[in-house]
Design a protein that fits this description.
Elements lengths: L4 E2 L30 E6 L5 E5 L6 E6 L2 H13 L3 E6 L6 H7 L11 E4 L15 E6 L15 E7 L17 E4 L4 H11 L6 H5 L5 E6 L2 E7 L3 H7 L7
Parallel strand pairs: 1-3, 4-8, 4-9, 5-6, 5-7, 7-8
Antiparallel strand pairs: 2-3, 2-11, 9-10, 10-11
Length: 243
């Protein structure tokens, strides 16, 4: 068995647990970790790669690419016991989370998942027992409607692609964790400017396979191969780059 490696997130005090399993073992267990620790995938050696998506401090993260990655992370956060609130202009694309969470005895969606429109609203209080993942699916240049202000609250911005205006905002360039799927060359060069990447790191961004992501954190550049289990395949379908 192999130990996971935790992606280094700045100020990380809610360290993801070690998972004493190989990525293949995910086929036989739920996709959860422990409090806030989520397995993203595996590295070139087949070792599980985990990150503390929910921590005892306000956290901001960004995904760039298709919806599959963002929805998989949401499912795995739910499996740790997190509340997931999605603010989106395309609610139908996120209904799979409600279906995955199930229903109450009276047939209503379990309140663990809420899908809301893109407008400010009051968030529930987050705590170690009830961490909160707020997903902002508002296009390539999102307004910061829900900046993380409390411990155990993470706001995840879902960007379909990189837009030049992103570099002037703080949703992306101040993120604690960034997960990048394959980018065309002009966007890879934009990523270089936003996150101060080195020249040799640009080309790999254009050559990622559909099941690969680059994770950027504090002094971290990690290529990760996404791993899915049978339950996730039934909910989300096969791993893919697009929506």
């Amino acid at each position: 068995m192999s130990r996971s490696r935790t992606i280094d997130v700045p100020g990380n005090q809610g360290v993801a647990p070690e998972f004493l399993v190989t990525p293949e073992t995910l086929d036989a267990i739920s996709p959860s970790g422990d409090r806030g620790g989520v397995i993203i995938g595996s590295d070139a050696q087949g070792e599980a790669q985990a990150a503390s998506l929910l921590r005892n401090m306000p956290t901001r993260m960004v995904t760039v690419g298709g919806l599959y990655l963002a929805r998989q992370l949401a499912l795995r956060a739910m499996a740790t016991g997190a509340w997931v609130i999605v603010a989106t202009g395309r609610p139908a694309a996120w209904k799979v989370l409600e279906r995955a969470a199930g229903q109450t005895p009276d047939g209503k969606p379990v309140p663990l998942v809420q899908i809301r429109r893109l407008a400010p609203f009051d968030l529930p209080r987050s705590s170690e027992d009830t961490p909160l993942l707020v997903i902002h699916d508002g296009g390539a240049v999102p307004q910061e409607l829900f900046p993380p202000r409390a411990a155990w609250q993470t706001t995840m911005y879902v960007l379909p692609y990189l837009h030049p205006q992103v570099s002037s905002g703080n949703a992306a360039n101040t993120a604690d964790l960034v997960l990048l799927q394959r980018l065309p060359l002009n966007q890879a060069q934009l990523a270089q400017r936003i996150w101060s990447l080195r020249n040799h790191q640009v080309q790999p961004l254009t050559q990622l396979q559909d099941d690969q992501v680059i994770a950027l954190g504090n002094m971290t550049w990690s290529m990760i191969r996404l791993v899915t289990n049978q339950q996730e395949k039934e909910i989300l379908g096969p791993i893919r780059r697009g929506d």
